[in-house]
């Protein structure tokens, strides 16, 4: 028996439990059924609901026992309890009965119906008949913004929502109000929930108080959804998700438990960002391909239309938002010397440094970050660029208080007591940045200023110059905390793309290791597959600008193939130059951009919800995602289009000609590429994507054909587009979570080794290695501090795809120029002054409007620009002048027009999707252009 395990007896059955757990966790870890509400495996116990009552006996001779709440009861060796004891069973049933006195009878119309924890627990306790016939308590609901619906009448006062939102995630605009039988959970007034984790209220709430607003508007029951395991593609963390679809359109994303990464929680970008696949700018038709039949294009049509490519040289530009195999295949197609990984000139320099430091300093996962006792963040606002990582940092800051409680004999799971004992005691957080963030209020030491200030502080830190005039307090406190920490974590990233600051930041790594051998590191790249792109770099890899220029100037180049990249680092003049050169532009993407509109050939590829592939997260972990629904012609997966291009470029005897499925693709890549990181797994389980209870299987397409269509065949991923197949629980990559008696997401405990631990069917972690040792040199050209203008983007503006989602557009607050007191005084600007700014962005010069926000924490002459539109890195300010009244009115009118347009688009999208429901796509074979 392990040292930390004890033997207890549950209804006279001996089981092993973790000595550090409470009784409820021990019971659930051994797969017994015991109702609960207020307890959560990631948030501990508060004993608010009294639902987990058991009978606790003194010893084997005690036949009477006493009632105890399992969630607040520590375990001890030889402990004897009963779940089935009549007194405990009746008590649990009475607790449910009391809750039901005010709970409405609205399960048939509740969005939580069929996956409701309250329903499960009510059935489990045996409370099958309503006994109360009196008047019920009612509340007025709130408008909580674009994402979360509110129905307070369903509340059972478990306190989970406020414990997650305020205590766990650090949200400040949500709380609990009232007392006795009139307790209210919400905001002080109607308004958008400000936390990046507001969507977790939907999964945390055991009833239907908080609902997914987007899902509710285009709704399907959980048992009717066809789901697939996936990976979030909107940042580099790589949270595991489950995508659900119905009638050919994606309905929602829910969290898929992954112990080392996202655990139980998902940020709002990952939860709601999938909406881009349902927007009007989805590519659904080809351009530049002549169809021979009215039914649509065929494989032969594509090869004929691309005959101009035969034997020609092409430039290939990949993307860090596309899959690892698609980028590798593109590189094979065009050759090493004509391949760009999709990095701009500036980003490529950052990529070189990241590659250089990666293998020697492996990044830690989010679970390890949560164990840290000191955190240092340099110039990366992870609350917006990697929100789930910021949530882990918040948990790390509690460790000092948890240790204090443990020293007093209070276990970590006693959440309320631990927080009371901890008070304001937190593990040290140090932030050195060019912009404010939501973590600033948690920092022990905070320095906000220009990139020149950041490089100066880092230099003095490495030199351990504690006499520095302005920064000595920061440096002294940091060195002391880092030296005495047992597991310190250093976090930096690509956010502002300032080469000098980035190189100085990475130079700190060796110093920090010398200061504390236990130092661990995280470098946050910008995209879901940036690390995957680093594995494809070599000495011949081109930047985007170099590749574009080569295509224009080299007469031997016939055209450019762009894979899922909008190329926002190119100017309009660059795009015009390619057009005038007579070279062809071929774009493979799933949503339209300025590039696709000028392309000669457009090939619509499947988004992440309809395709296979692998993404490599910030830690180098390779993760597989699967399609939730099959593509509809002429849409194909990106690698399928590239296989066709390879055939067109080479010959009819091409090695790519026989590749029909995903496994064959990987076999070919393993043959062509040394040390190919991915080996296709044996996926013979044929797991069903649909639940056994899915409705309307034979009727949902009856308005198109009276004949029952054949189930779409998919033979290359181990999952079936059907209700028939293996159980979802047979694999760690579960498409959905369900267990007998557990219809809600709480069923995950049945598939964990113990609650809040690894899955029983855990897969081995596969990580990439980067065999790229570039020549490093510091970019000597740096802009002056006064002209530097770091760009601040909210989480919903971090990715190009997110811009087209109307719910995200409705969150826009207008441009803001954050300035230091010194700047404001020098220029005589007041809080709220409107300015007209002349700015050089990465590729173009623009005049924009922005409101002045004075940031007193800024050091020296410093500014930062908060934008409502996607724009990476740092800009340069040419001039700033106070805007005229007419200019302000024009800007505000334009913003109002954009707001109304977003509202109209939101409604139009919903109408279009509901109309689409009437014509469910019938597909015989998943993928390809020629259905058999």
- Class by helix and strand content? alpha/beta
Summarize model confidence as the mean pLDDT: 92
C-alpha-based Rg, rounded: 29 Å
Helix content: 25-40%
**Which CATH C-level class of the domain at 299-348 and 533-610 and 619-715 is it?**
Alpha Beta
CATH topology of the domain at 299-348 and 533-610 and 619-715: Rossmann fold
Instruction: Please mark out the parts with pLDDT under 50 across 5 or more consecutive residues, or reply none.
Output: none
CATH architectural category of the domain at 299-348 and 533-610 and 619-715? 3-Layer(aba) Sandwich
- Number of helices in the DSSP assignment: 27
- Structure summary, number of beta strands: 32
Cα separation of the termini: 57 Å
The gross shape turns out to be globular
Task: Profile the largest sheet.
Answer: 6 strands, mixed, barrel
Biggest sheet strand line-up: 27-31-28-30-29-32
Describe this protein's structure.
InterPro entries: 2Fe-2S_ferredoxin-like_sf, 2Fe-2S_ferredoxin-type, Mopterin_OxRdtase, Mopterin_OxRdtase_4Fe-4S_dom, NADH_UbQ_OxRdtase_75kDa_su_CS, NADH_UbQ_OxRdtase_ferredoxin, NADH_UbQ_OxRdtase_Gsu, NADH_UbQ_OxRdtase_Gsu_4Fe4S-bd. Its cofactor is [4Fe-4S] cluster; [2Fe-2S] cluster. Belongs to the complex I 75 kDa subunit family. One of its GO terms (biological process) is ATP synthesis coupled electron transport. With 932 residues, this protein is of the alpha/beta class. Among the domains are: 100 residues, Ubiquitin-like (UB roll); 225 residues, Rossmann fold (3-Layer(aba) Sandwich), CATH 3.40.50.740; 171 residues, Dimethylsulfoxide Reductase, domain 2 (3-Layer(aba) Sandwich), CATH 3.40.228.10; 96 residues, Beta Barrel (Barwin-like endoglucanases), CATH 2.40.40. The protein contains 27 helices and 32 strands. A six-stranded mixed beta barrel has the order 27-31-28-30-29-32. A five-stranded mixed β-sheet has the order 2-1-5-3-4, sandwiched between helices. A hairpin with a 2-residue loop joins strand 11 and strand 12. Helix 20 runs parallel beside helix 21. The longest helix is centred in the C-terminal third of the chain and has 32 residues. It is globular, with a radius of gyration of 29 Å. 50% of the residues are buried.
